[in-house]
Amino acid sequence: xxxxxxxxxxxxxxxxxxxxxxxxxxxxxxxxxxxxxxxxxxxxxxxxxxxxxxxxxxxxxxxxxxxxxxxxxxxxxxxxxxxxxxxxxxxxxxxxxxxxxxxxxxxxxxxxxxxxxxxxxxxxxxxxxxxxxxxxxxxxxxxxxxxxxxxxxxxxxxxxxxxxxxxxxxxxxxxxxxxxxxxxxxxxxxxxxxxxxxxxxxxxxxxxxxxx
Length: 212
Description:
two-stranded antiparallel ribbon; elongated; mainly alpha
């Protein structure tokens, strides 16, 4: 039995070919260009595992909502639905900055069950801390290193909290951010961030800083 090697190209790139070669080896494979697929034809096939790729196909925007509906209303387990929707949100980000947030706002209650969604949340939290500290160190050159790092931690935590609020609770969660943004206590911000990651509703988060 022969083996066929496949390489899936998610974004259009005219420089990509179906072979690799150097001075010693020459390797050919089948190049599958997702952008060459027509979304309409793929939707007619109704193959669930292809639905997350619809945003990358020709005419994908027109069928984004329908792909979303088929996944959400399909006869799949909650875990499968969450993985398919999260995958579609990630892939749609290669085409549009607004499509992922549109999917997250609509299907957050399902997507939150996906392991990939949790990884994205954790990554956003860590990147927020890192970015905030880096900005703080830069400002520290002018304001004093210790003060700059403290400011960086504060900004990083605020960024992380805002990200978690938006991912978990959408527009309703972001209503808390103007209140939280005024807080300068690093320990309290860390507590708010930890609470935001596991809270069942925004009132549990508000209670953390309302009592301080």
